[in-house]
Amino acid sequence: MKTSTSGLIRIIALIIIAFYFITARAENLTQLSVNALPVVYTVTGGGAGCQIARVALGLSSSEVGVKYILLKNNEYHEELMGTGLALSFGNHEVGTYTVTATNSENTIVMTGNAVITEIPSISVGVEIVASANPVHNGASVIFTPVPVGGGTTPTYEWFKNSVSVGVLNTYSYIPADGDIVYAIMTSNASSCLTGNPATSNPITMSVSITSGLKDDNTKLNVYSFEKNIYVLSSETIKQINIYNAAGILVKTVNDVTETPMISMVDKPAGCYIVSIISDKNVYPRKVNLK
To answer: How many other C-beta atoms are found inside a 10 Å radius of the C-beta of residue 49?
Structure first.
């Protein structure tokens, strides 16, 4: 009877101890469940964009009931509640973005960040120059574009009197007096362009009514000496225009003396076109300035 009582006491003691450990473990599990950290996910998105553009940001996944806060340069920006799926914060501007996750007890930082940088904008423009202007009747003229921000392979659509004449790198033809030529350039420099496509300056062609090859009834002599251009003519000269090799007007003389001497000391050496406008005709002449 004594042995039986002793055994019963031992059994009761073991039951009490087991109950204690089971209760303690349950409390620990409950505490662990209450203090569980949010699952760590990865910030997505970022990259480079134009000044006026925005870049997408997101989180690789989320938990229901967890609040996700988007920080821009470590300051609050916006927040979303978890859905159990990936999150999209939409498109955003330049900055460094991180995300924190908060449940009822804890806040942690998600993995990684998203950096958005700006691609500088490139201004696009184009100027065209003529190989000669004015020209004599029947002469061919070459128009050449001078691009700004054109990229590696810009395209040029050429227009004569507002009518398209083709997409060409350069344009050449025999002009008529008063023709207006211009070009529209489309750049491929980058994705961040301003002023693309760009319209060039218009060039109005001046064409003399004679061939300009022979002046049997006109004594005309044009030459240069010591950075000066001299014009001798049997006709009354009203105006003299001087163009460089690119067809750009560099000097105009209106007060023409009997034997004009035009100083070119401020101009570089090279080939120039001298357009002499008399009371009877327009005479283009080429001189080499040394």
So the answer is: 20
Q: What is the largest CA-CA distance in the chain?
A: 158
Structural domain contains residue 25: no
Cβ(82)–Cβ(58) below 8 Å: no
10-50: pLDDT as tens digits: 777 677 776 666 665 655 544 444 568 999 999 999 888 77
Q: Looking at 86, 102, 119, which one is the last position of a domain? A: 119
Rounded distance between C-alpha atoms, residue 154 and residue 134, angstroms: 28
DSSP tag of 38: P
**Domain residue limits at 56:** 43-119
In tens, the pLDDT along 122-153 reads 899 999 998 888 887 778 888 999 999 998 99
Burial class (CB in 10 A: 0-12, 13-18, 19+), 177: middle
CATH of the domain at 177: 2.60.40.10
Spatial separation of the C-alpha atoms in residues 287 and 160, rounded to whole Å: 29
Q: Is the pLDDT of residue 114 over 60?
A: yes
